[in-house]
Amino acid sequence: MTGAKVVDTTGGGDAFVAAPTASLLRGDPYPEAARRATAASGATVSHAGGRPDLTGPAARG
After folding, report:
1. How many CA atoms, within 13 angstroms, populate the side-chain half-sphere of residue 42?
2. Among 37, 61, 41, CA closest to 51
3. Among 2, 30, 42, 55, which one is most buried in terms of CB atoms within 10 A?
């Protein structure tokens, strides 16, 4: 999501915390969890409404 335009910050922090939590619970290494945190937050704030597009590359990690 490099260079993505921020449209609505609603849910960005929640996504930033939820993604690495799920990743670490799955047993992923810390760098992967951090990457997922950034991707989830970016996907969430790039459109209005606070819900990310769960079909795109960010959702797949």
Report:
1. 16
2. 41
3. 42
Q: Which portions of the chain are predicted below pLDDT 70?
A: 1-3, 52-61
Q: Using CA of residue 30, residue 11, residue 40, residue 4, what is the dihedral sign?
A: negative
Smallest CA-to-CA distance from 43 within 61, 30, 22 is with 61
Q: Do 53 and 60 form a contact (C-beta atoms < 8 A)?
A: no
Amino acid at 56: G
Angle between helices 30-45 and 12-25 (to 10 degrees): 150
Q: What span, in angstroms and rounded, lies between the C-alpha atoms of 2 and 21?
A: 22
